[in-house]
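Below is how a single chain appears once it has passed through the pipeline. First comes the sequence as given, then the structure the pipeline wrote out for it. We keep one example in the README because the format questions we get most often are answered faster by looking than by reading.
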Amino acid sequence: MSGSVQVTQQLQQHQLQHQHQHQQHESSCYLSSKSSVKQHSFSTYKTSSRRQKTTVKTEKRQAVVKLSPLPARAKRTYLAMDTDKEVIGYVIPVFRANHEDVRGLMEAREEEVTEEGIHYVAMRNLFVREAREAVDVKVETKTRSTHIRESAERMELSKTMEEWAEFRKKMNPDSLTHRPEFIVKPRGQTVWEGGAVRLHCTVAGWPKPRIAWYKNNVLIDAKAHPEKYAIESSFNMHSLEIKNCDFMDTAQYHASALNVKGEASSVATIVVKRFQEGEEAGPLDPKPHGFCAEHGVTFETTIIDKFEVAFGREGETLSLGCTVIIYPTVKKYQPEVVWSRNSVPLKPSKWVHTHWSGQRATLTLVHLNKEDEGMYTLRVNTKSGFDTYSAYVYVRDADVEVEGVPVAPLDVRCHDANKDYVVVTWKQPAVEGSSSILGYFIDRCEVGTHHWAQCNDAPVKYARFPVTGLVEGRSYVFRVRATNKEGVSRPSRVSDAVVAMDPSDRARLRAGPSAPWTGMIKFTEEDPTVGVVPGEPSDVVVTEATKSYVVLAWKPPVQRGHEGVMYYIEKCISGTETWQRVNSGMPVKSPRFALFDLAEGKSYSFRVRCCNSSGVGEASVSTGEITVGDKLDLPSSPGNPVATRNTDTSVVVFWGACKDVKYLVGYYVEYSEVGTDVWIPCNNKPVKQTRFVCHGLTTGSNCVFRVKAVNAAGYSQSSSSSEAVVVKAAISVPGRATGVTVLEAVKDTMMLTWTEPASKGGADVRGYFVDYRTVKGHVVGKWHEMNLKALTTTSYKAENLKENVFYQFQVRAMNMAGVSEASLPTSALECKEWTITVAGPPVGLHVLEVRDTSAVVLWERPAFDGRTPVNGYYLDIKEASAGEKGWKAAHEKANKTKYMKVTGLKPGASYDFRVRAQNLAGVGKPSAVLGPILVQTRPGTNEIHVDVDDDGVISMIFECAEMKEGSEFVWSKNYQTVTDTSRLTLVTERGRSRAIFNSPSLEDLGTFSCVVTNTDGFSSSYTLTEEDLKRLLDISHDHKFPVIPFKNEMAIELLEKGRVRFWTQVEKCTSACQVDYVFNDVIITEEEKYTVNFDKSTGIIEMFMDSLEVSDEGTFTFDLVDGKAKGATSLVLIGDEFRELQKKSEFERAEWVRKQGPHFVEYLDFTVTPECNVLLKCKIGNVRAETEITWSKDNIEIAEDDEDAQKIERKDGDLTFNIGKISKADAGTYQVLLRDDRGKDKSTFNLTDAGYQAVMNELFRVIANSSCDIKVISTEHGIILYSMITYYNEELRVGWLHKDAKIAASERVKSGVTGEQLWLKINEPTEKDKGKYTMDIFDGKDGVKRVFDLTGKAWEEAFEEFQRLKAAAIAERNRARVVGGLPDVVAIQEGKSLNLTGNVWGEPAPEVSWTKNDRELVCDERYQLKFEHGKFASITIAAVTTADSGKYALLVKNKYGTEAGEFTVSVYNPDDEENKEGKKG
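Resulting structure:
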């Protein structure tokens, strides 16, 4: 194809414009996609794809070098602009040309072109055309008159060109625009770590430049990291704030300003100084242990107030937390807190929120899903090491909407994403429902929309599905639903968003921009591979094969060019040689493809072809025969499970792993209580280990367990059930005893004491064994037992020792499971007599009744009283995190008892306790420290409550649901075990114990407590005071001598006919209950005046009287007797109350009499219909055919022949009077009268004053609520906002507001009503008219508001339409036209002169020409054509002949249009006419 191109009129115009602008070259990369200037670019014809130089010639024979056109696949590149014409991005264009052309283009000075309005474009085109025509001057010989005329025309043209130049200066915004310039540049700063820093700059430029901030040439996205960065821009002032600076924020920060005129940047350096030097370690990096040289201390980490095994339900929010104590405390030092799930660190997201307050670490899981189930670990890293704590979180399924359907699948993920293909995988749920899962449906949703589309028509069995047909470059999320015979489950949690694109493109996107744009444009050679047919793909393999589909994968061809290729897939059935194209209608872009609808069991071969715009390439090598069927088998059954006891609510289950299983997803564990067939899942997320702790079980239940495996193919058969196991805590040997010390030594005797083990192994400690050995220098002897019988106390008197010999001692604890390990041995102690006078330390410290703010501390007297007996004790307390200086006394005076209740503690805190004994010599040494004790009420803890039964027996009851084997209830009074059964009788039934007071008296005052042995300290107490005893005795008396309780006292109500009903209701009674009805102390018998009733099933007692007379004033009483219980209720009916009730009774009776004849069920009232018609309506009852119904207005009856009679309508018992559209003339008093031989009734409605206003308010309400949403329409004058209503009333108040401010009426902004349209007209709108508009319609109360936001797209579309209509109106007004003066037909005698003048109009003045029979007339001696004053066009024919007959037209034309005024000229000869008439005669 030749390289020549034709020069169009646009090329000439482009050259003329270049001459006027001083030969400035214009780069197309700055052209806006919306700019009309692009219409003046070079027009070219199609050329070959090879690069070649093309020469074109203008009328002046000047050669212009032109670049070869871009190939068809290339796209133009533009600056990206927003709606305010501000640059928001850029695309670097690639020019294809030879080096000479490129060098010439780079040396030329750039010309920037901005968008121009429609008026400027129209005017410019006009002037350019006129200028071009003026330049094209022809040299020829002219007459003087012609020369003078043309001189005048040149003067006019010169004037026009000057006007055009002035107009161009005004319309050209290039004189105002300039590139960005930094007035104030950002300044480098130095900041301490942890502080905040702000960079400021001021930038000038027009159009307003866009500012972007970069850190080390990487764009800063403040929206993605609002916790780190904050970017603000206001009035050309720009700032970047960096919060909570750390060492990694030390960098160079660029502020880049960009608009259509160019780009400018400025650099500032931020230096973050640290309080300590050294490299930071990652969250999971190992930490050094021991002494921290940096701070000079060794940090000790203690995690308390730990979260336990937690249970949540899908959709709920769950929080986990621990209190972390770091000792010692170093100012401005904080540990590193890391949360992980199943050993994978968690990152904050919309589902996971973490918080560290300095003392407490909290993890919040928002909207739980089964993916959130697992082992959660809190790891606290310090400079001296780390500490961790873990607990499991279980997530139960949400309730299903339909019984029997499966629960939602979980863990939906996307793999192998490509241009139009992605593989979606998921995990099967633990619960299949009432029947097996038949398959799964996969849904997809494009990011940014809310429309979910189902990807597969039939359910797929595999937990893996290839989704095809994606649109390249778009992002998608996926979800999965399971289905069985009962229905479809709820959808799973949506997957993470995935972009359909080539993996290499995705890798480049992840890398991000490497540096801010510098304004440099790179030029490359034209692609030599354009037009190359791609080669054949390679390595075509089948990656997946199931019953439902087969997935192919291959490598793209080496020879493919840079144009991009697509693929056709072909299949061939085994035994044939015919290849069928599978996707002939739509080639795919990804090197992956899924084939469906293949016949199971058949064999196929597959191959792939590449194609591009140049053609289809050769086929690849065939895959060979592939049989359609499942390649993945179901897993085998797991091994037999073994269940063992763990805690009171958990069981440990072990099982054997599946054999020869591929792609195992995990195992599900289920349990069932013995005797039921209901299997409940223990885990809702599959686990891969063969050991699992099943929590949340019921204590004491007998359960069996089974396990099933799952992979992508489905579930295995469930394993056999385990042996039944009772859910209770496993018993183990106790822990070590601690704090072995010597209290006293006397010659051959030493008094030892110790602290009981912190862990008792699930059973009470039954005793202790003490061992000893001798020490001589550094030589120690063998251990020997000191006691063969277990000790029941935590002290022991070691006798028969040798004086002045050194000994070591150790203690072992024993429970029913065995003997514990020995305690740590004491130091070498010498057996010699002490001279101590004060008491020894108390022993046996323990706590009971631990609650959120209190605890009871108990102890035993010291093993050694000193020289005088102990006469009191002091209790010391401190928080566990405090040092030794934190001890403080819990009380001032010595406590005589061996227990004390400590109150006012902090909930959730941990405390240490110790006790000191006192005698006459003073206060002894403190006991061993008890603690730390977490002050928190244990779940399931009950309090002792006092009960009084129906027989008046007073008892104290304590319940415990945590009973274990061997647990017992131990009751104490003042913390001394109750042994005297004369005061209390103890009754125990399973987990409930009752202490019954035999004869309650003042002797029973005191604190009663109950402890459940062999538990984790379940206990409670109740203090019986003298006031409580008196209250309980009163309740006991009421129970012994009961009173019948009433739900309510006697009440009275009026019934129909004025009857009176006296009634009451008792809470409970027996069938033997009797009632006496008493009036003024006289028992009433049932007679004609009284009617009585007692419904014992409901407890309602009633007495009826037909009417009230004067003699009925007095007191009415109901007396009840039910066995030994009695009750009475009375009602006093006297004085004004009696007379008022009597009047109401008479009124009700009169109403009943009224209703015996025709009457009004509902009196006359009004309503307003949706059509805004006012109806007066009433409902009548008990009417007959002869009943007269009379309507009247203002006491004037409405006759049948009156006009208003047509407004009356009766339908069944409803009467209506349709006033229609109400006006003040309808005001008045309306009345309806019913009358027949049984009586009469009337109803009146006053439609005046308040009544009229009420009707109008209701009418306004209907009108206001009928208004539609505000709509916008554009006209040639401006923008109109309007709303349609059903009906408009002149009294309706309508207000308009702009940006919540009332709009004042003006010539430019007006509001009004046209028919049923409420409108607001904005003439000649400007940017100031943008914003929120509110129409406030009065509805009788607050008003109804309709809001329209005239911003953004709505403003752009409306304003653009206004400009278009305005331009069209201007064009229509100024269009050239013939406005009059010409007849339709002209009949003229031959030889006479014809002179016709036509009035024309047009702005600018039109061009005028005359035609005859569609041929243009030229001014000569025969035709005189004139055009005067730009308005009058005339034609003169001196002496017409018959040849002048014909169809004439006056043609007028200007830039806005053309019009023709046509007329017919008929020339006749009188002689010919006479001859014709003579012949006829």
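The first strand starts at residue 54 and ends at 57.

See the next section for the split statistics.
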